[in-house]
Amino acid sequence: MKKMEIREDAVSPVIGVMLMIVVTVIIAAIVSGFAGGMSDNQNTAPTAAIQCSIVKEDADNVVMTLKHVSGDSLKTADLRFYVSYVNSTGTPVQERTQGVSVEGFTDTEGNTVNATVPYLTDVKVGDVGDDDTNYGNFIWNPGQIITTGNGEGFEAITGLDPEDVEIGDIISIRLVDTSSQKAIFDKDVRVQ
What are the Archaeal Type IV pilin N-terminal domain coordinates in residue numbering (predicted)? Predict the structure, then answer.
C-alpha cells in the first residue's frame, strides 16, 4: 500500500486572502457608516418651505410676514434671523437676531401688550403677547404664520427704520438652525 503525503503549503495563501477580504469588508462598513450619516458628528437641519413677504403699509409702518408652507416643524428657540441689506449710504449691513421683545401691540381685548417678534399669529395657540405666541417659545408648524406685526417689530428684527425702506428695496432674509448651523430659508425679498 502506498503512503499518502499530506501537503500543507497551500493553507497559508488561503488564510492570507481571507484576512484581506475581512479587512476590506470592515473598511467598507466604516466608510458606508460615515457616508450614510451614521456618525455622531453630523447634525441635520430641518427642512421647510417658507414664504416671506415685506410690505410697506405706510410711511412709518413696514411688516415682515413668514408663512411655513410645508416640511418639518421648526423649534423657534433654535432659529436665528440673519438680515442683510445695503443702507442709504451704500454700506452693507447685517443684523442677527433670535427674537426681540417689542412694545405697543394690541391684543384682541384692546390691551396694549409686549410681544417677542416675530410672533405667532395662530389664535388657537394664543393671542399676541401671550407666552405661547412669543418667538422662541413655540414650535412653528406648517400652515402657521409669524409676523413682525408693525414698524417697531420690523425694525427690531432688521435694524431698518421703516421710514428708510422704500417699495422695491431688496432685503436678504436668512433663517438658520442654530443646532446644525445650516440655513433653512435664504431669500432676497423685495419690499412691496
Answer: 9-85
